[in-house]
Amino acid sequence: MAPEKARETESWLRFAEDDWSYARHGQQHFPRGAAWNEHQAAEKYLKAILLDDGTEPPRTHDLLHLVSLLRPALPPDHALVRAAAAMKLFGPSRRYPGDVPEVTPSESAKAAQACDTIRQFALARIGAGAANRGQSADST
Description:
The protein is mostly helical. The protein has a single domain (3-138), classed as Four Helix Bundle (Hemerythrin (Met), subunit A), CATH 1.20.120.330. Helix content is 68%, strand content 0%. The protein is built from five helices and no strands. α4 (79-87) crosses α5 (105-138). The model is unreliable at 135-140 (pLDDT under 50).
């Protein structure tokens, strides 16, 4: 991977980790804000994976669309697909008052669980990709 793409991937991961951290700190008292930040983090984790794989991520908040761009393709029952589907309720559709009912603490907890699934997948996949790139660079 070109150094500028590696830096861009790292930037997306850093921003994702910030959003994830904000969500963790607000989970108890601000369930809507926590769920929003978890959706934002999940989006950034998925975009980091795409960049790491060499795909320019599209400007979208649709997590299922981002997952559909991953290669190899994931089966519909894969945990990452299920997590992205669960996060749909917490994205831009709930940004403004009156759009939908308020996010409850239990819904926010579900968003946290789904985001954690996406986070762990991203960190493992990007870490494995970086390790493999380092291995092939070492062997040359």
